[in-house]
Specification:
The protein is an alpha/beta fold. It has 11 helices and 10 strands. The two termini are 31 Å apart.
Length: 312
C-alpha cells in the first residue's frame, strides 16, 4: 500500500502539465502561457532544441519562439525535452541537440518525453511493454498501422540511433504511460519509479490524458477536479497546447473556465520536475516489481483500446 502524500504548505492536491511541442507556433505560446501564468500555474513546456530535417516544425532555432521559451523559464516554468527534434536523429545529432539544450537553458533536461515516430525513442513502442501485453500491442499496431510501425532503437547498444547512455547520464525523468484518470498518482502510485528491465532511464513517470482540447477538458471536468481534491492526489496532464487550445487569438472558453476554477482551489501548482522531486524525496527511490509493472501495462492497454483506439 502506497501511503498518501502530504503536499507542501498544507495544499490539498498537486497539479501540473507536460506540454509537447507538436504543431507549436509562436502565436500559440503567446496566447496560452500568459493565461496560465496569470492564474498562478507553473508547468513544463517541452521543446525541440534543433530544427533537424523538418522545416515544418517550430523549434528553438526560431528566434521569437526561443525568446518566448526563455521568458517562460525566467517566470518559473520548466523547459523539458521531446527528443532533440521532430524527426529521427542519429546518436551524433542527439548528442548535438542535448548540448544545444544545455547551452540554451543552462542545464541538461530534467524531464523528457519520447516523440512518436522517432526511431531513436528510448524503450518506446512495443519496448514499453512485457510479455502478453507486448504481443497484444504488436497485434493491434499491425491491424491499425500495417508495417509502418517504427522500432525504437535509442536503448539498443550498437544501433546508430543509440543514446541510452546519454539519457542515463543527463535526464532524470522520462514520461511513459498515459491514463484516463485525472489522478495520475492513483493510476500510477509507484511513480517516479526505476524499472530494472529498462535500466537506461533513471525514473519513469506517468500522465493523465489530455492530448487535445476535447480530451483535456473532459479529464479536467468539474467533477474530476473535485475528486482530485478529495483524493489528495497529483495530476500531470499530458497535452499539446497547439491542438485546439487557441481560438481566434484567445484560449478555448471551456478550457478557460476549467483552469480558472482549478486555480481557485488549494492546489500545489508546480512544474513536473518539482512535483516528481518532491514525491521522490518523500517516498524514496522505488524499483518497480514485475507485479506492479503488469498492473500498469494492463491499465494502459485498456486505456489505449477503449479511449484512444490504439493511437500512439
Amino acid at each position: 500500500m502506497i501511503p498518501k502524500i502530504d503536499w507542501p504548505d498544507g495544499k490539498d492536491f498537486a497539479f501540473t502539465i507536460f506540454d509537447d511541442p507538436d504543431q507549436d507556433t509562436v502565436e500559440n505560446l503567446e496566447t496560452v502561457y500568459p493565461f496560465l501564468c496569470d492564474l498562478g500555474f507553473r508547468t513544463t513546456k517541452a521543446v525541440w532544441p534543433i530544427q533537424g530535417d523538418s522545416k515544418k516544425t517550430t523549434t528553438c532555432e526560431n528566434e521569437r519562439y526561443l525568446e518566448l521559451v526563455l521568458g517562460l523559464q525566467k517566470q518559473g516554468f520548466e523547459i523539458g525535452l521531446h527528443n532533440v527534434t521532430s524527426r529521427t536523429s542519429t546518436r551524433e545529432r542527439t548528442a548535438f541537440g542535448l548540448e544545444r539544450f544545455r547551452s540554451l537553458f543552462g542545464h541538461t533536461p530534467y524531464s523528457m518525453a519520447n516523440h512518436t515516430g522517432c526511431g531513436e525513442n528510448i524503450y518506446w513502442g512495443s519496448a514499453r511493454l512485457s510479455g502478453v501485453y507486448r504481443v497484444l500491442y504488436n497485434m493491434l499496431n499491425l491491424r491499425l498501422n500495417g508495417n509502418r510501425q517504427v522500432v525504437s532503437q535509442g536503448h539498443i547498444e550498437g544501433s546508430p540511433l543509440f543514446w541510452g547512455d546519454f539519457c542515463k547520464a543527463q535526464i532524470k525523468y522520462v514520461r511513459n504511460f498515459v491514463f484516463g484518470d485525472i489522478n495520475t498518482l492513483k493510476a500510477c502510485p509507484v511513480m517516479p519509479y526505476h524499472d530494472p528491465v529498462r535500466p537506461l532511464v533513471n525514473h519513469w513517470f506517468a500522465s493523465s490524458e489530455g492530448s487535445n482540447i476535447n480530451l483535456f477538458n473532459a479529464t479536467l471536468s468539474e467533477e474530476n477536479q473535485d475528486r482530485l481534491v478529495r483524493e489528495g492526489g497529483a495530476c500531470i496532464m499530458y497535452t499539446h497546447f497547439a491542438s485546439g487550445f487557441q481560438e481566434n487569438g484567445r484560449v478555448n472558453r471551456r478550457f478557460e473556465v476549467l483552469m480558472e476554477r482549478l486555480s481557485k482551489m488549494n492546489g500545489w501548482f508546480v512544474p513536473v520536475d518539482t512535483l516528481l522531486d518532491y514525491i521522490l524525496r518523500t517516498r524514496g527511490h522505488h524499483v518497480i516489481t514485475q507485479k506492479e509493472r503488469n498492473v500498469l501495462e494492463g491499465r494502459w492497454m485498456w486505456h489505449k483500446i477503449t479511449a484512444t483506439r490504439g493511437r500512439s
